[in-house]
Amino acid sequence: PQALFQLVERWVPAARRAQHLHGKGYGVERLAQAIQAGELVNHYQPKVSVSTGAVVGVETLVRWRHPEDGLVYPDQFIGLAEAHGLIDALTQVVLAQALRDSTTWAREGLALKVAVNVSMDNLHALEFPERITAVAAAAEVKPQSIVLEVTESQLMKDLRAPLEILTRLRLRRFKLSIDDFGTGHSSLAQLRDVPFDELKIDQGFVHGAHHNETLRAIFFASLGLAKELGMEVVAEGVEDAEDWDFLQKSGCDLAQGYFIARPMPADQVLDWVAAWRARWAREHAGGPSSG
Ligand code: C2E
Ligand code: MG
Ligand code: MG
Ligand code: MG
Questions:
Q1: Taking the model in full, what pTM does it have?
Q2: What ipTM score was computed for the predicted complex, to two decimals?
Q3: Which of 61, 87, 88, 259 to mutate to test ligand 1, by most ligand atoms within 8 A of the CB atom?
């Protein structure tokens, strides 16, 4: 019986984890409680300039620090928040935390733009622009330093509805970014109508593009289109040295990915930036831009 008991003890958490992987593990009440109790924590992944190595900003990626289950990833609870009207609360909590963290970095002399992922459901609330303007004002962070990322696939399901809110956000000087580009099948005409500042090429067209002609074709078509429309371009999913080398020659502005940095807690960002600058200086010592 003792052995059986141990077996069950080991099996139960594993089963619970497996259930979560299928997205059915958490109830909406538990998630609401987690948002209120401050169990959501922001991790940050740097966006760096491909040509100068400058760290221009970070993207906020939310995690749920679950007391029993450990770190739970957004794929496990963002959909739940969207489906049950919790996404407004979630976005505000995440944004407020991101602005507090960016203020801390700024006090240490590091000015970083902060990107926050917003859901399409956020863009259905007419008061959203005012609400986040208030959050930014309370934190004394300029909207120009705040980037709002919306995935192309969510946008293209219905572009007309959010257009007014996107325009209002733009008028308030927030930066708008179209995320996971290449997976949402937008047309050129649609893109021209939306006032985006930044386009992020989906990791599926970045990682491995150096040895895959099809990926490269989509990558360069996206890059050319975005440049034509005056947007800044970010390559997502830079996972290895080959991806990074490819980007150096591509004409892409910014890069993000595990090769540069994994998402990290706020208190690691300053040290990471120092280490990154040292790595860049080392790798470029004696090169054409030194001295
Ligand atoms: P995303 O905004 O496209 O973020 C990029 C995702 O790719 C992140 O996963 C990141 O950890 C991962 N990633 C970064 N670099 C690499 C790489 O080199 N290789 C690979 N394979 N993956 C990489 P994560 O953190 O699990 O987030 C997944 C998605 O959840 C995000 O995709 C975003 O759409 C959504 N999300 C995250 N935080 C929030 C939030 O606060 N609000 C909302 N509405 N959605 C969020
Ligand atoms: Mg994003
Ligand atoms: Mg993305
Ligand atoms: Mg994504």
A1: 0.91
A2: 0.99
A3: 61
